[in-house]
Amino acid sequence: xxxxxxxxxxxxxxxNKAKEELREAAKVLRDGGLVAFPTETVYxxxxxxLNPDAVRAIFLAKGRPSDNPLIVHIAELSTxxxxxxAIPAEAKMLAEKFWPGPLTMVLEKLPQVPxxxxxxxxxxxxxxxxxxxALELIRQCGCPVAAPSANISGRPSxxxxxxxxxxxxxxADIIIKSCDCKVGIESTVLDLTGPVPTILRPGILTPExxxxxxxxxxxxxxxxxxxxxxxxxxxxxTTAGTDTHLIPPKSPGMKYTHYAxxxxxxxxxxxxxxVEREIERIRTEREQTGSKVGLLLFExxxxxxxAHDFFAMLRDLDDQNVDLILAGALNEKDSIGLAxxxxxxxxxxxxxxDV
Length: 355
Ligand code: TXA
Ligand code: MG
Prior knowledge:
By secondary structure, the protein is an alpha/beta fold. The protein has helices spanning 16-30, 52-62, 89-98, 115-118, 132-141, 161-168, 207-214, 222-229, 272-288, 303-319, 335-348; strands at 7-10, 35-37, 44-48, 71-73, 103-108, 123-127, 145-146, 174-177, 188-191, 198-201, 219-220, 264-269, 293-296, 324-328, 352-354. An eleven-stranded mixed beta sheet has the order 1-8-2-3-7-4-6-5-9-10-11, with helices on both faces. Strands 13-14-12-15 form a four-stranded parallel beta sheet, sandwiched between helices. Helix 1 (16-30) packs across helix 5. The model is unreliable at 231-246 (pLDDT under 50). The structure holds threonylcarbamoyladenylate and magnesium ion. Threonylcarbamoyladenylate is lined by residues 39, 41-42, 44, 68-71, 104, 106, 118, 121, 123-125, 129, 147-149, 186-187, 189, 200-201, 251-253.
């Protein structure tokens, strides 16, 4: 793998210097290069979505499995014309309400969208990010930008510029460092190609919010709910990349063990007092044998804060070189709680202890 001379641009305000740097970054994208940029959810690693070689370079840089398709980012609705044959009425309603924003819609694709972008699927996932730097970059570039999260595949997603630098220095042509991402977990992925709008990846936008706009039910893919219940004990974790689910994944991303911290991670689930007591017990036991133990416990009701902090806390714990992370489960009856739990389960390799 070729090591690149990565340029790092620090952009917080859209001043003249920033505009100049964005013009340079946009040119790099047009010429087939890789640019990491901030969005409101997590940082993305972008390439021209219509250039198969450029998109292939993303997979190489991240070490990402090639059957896991990318999200194509746009800055204007008119760009949909080069991606999909027609805008379905439901997509139009949702775009009007939630774009720019943390909603990705899976739609039937035009043949010109390369297979490498969509992992060979006949559909394409599209979103308009709610971040002025991302929007200006895409606008300047003049092409749709395919961008997965800007992390090495299998590592926690990057929500801070310094995390992108840690993972992608020497791999991207340009890294745009900006403020921390507002949302902190990736967009809600909604499949609109079937009879019922189906969430393939839960996010900060909930099925209730989407359903209200559509005037009909939006369901969560059963594979996501199934992930919470098909776990076993703490020593029966799954191997990275192994599909452990009973219900076949609709989105290739559902089947990979993502976000893994370097440490072993176990989730404790039950009443808060019981969870805290068990965490203390395991912590004392493990510390006595010389292990360094880290905790991941969120406020019980502030799910948006949990979403905002989750990936950054995983990376912090990695930096502290802990051997074991003990995490408190979030309430999955709350839609954002479910979205964070979905990441937490993957991060732990589905290791859950009911207390
Ligand atoms: O918030 C986000 O969505 C971030 C920022 C950078 O925009 N991007 C992101 O991309 O999370 P990535 O590549 O890490 O996740 C893309 C997800 C995967 O779960 C993938 O399987 C799914 O979207 N996906 C992409 N195209 C799809 C398609 N055609 N059908 C079903 N799922 C698709
Ligand atoms: Mg990702």
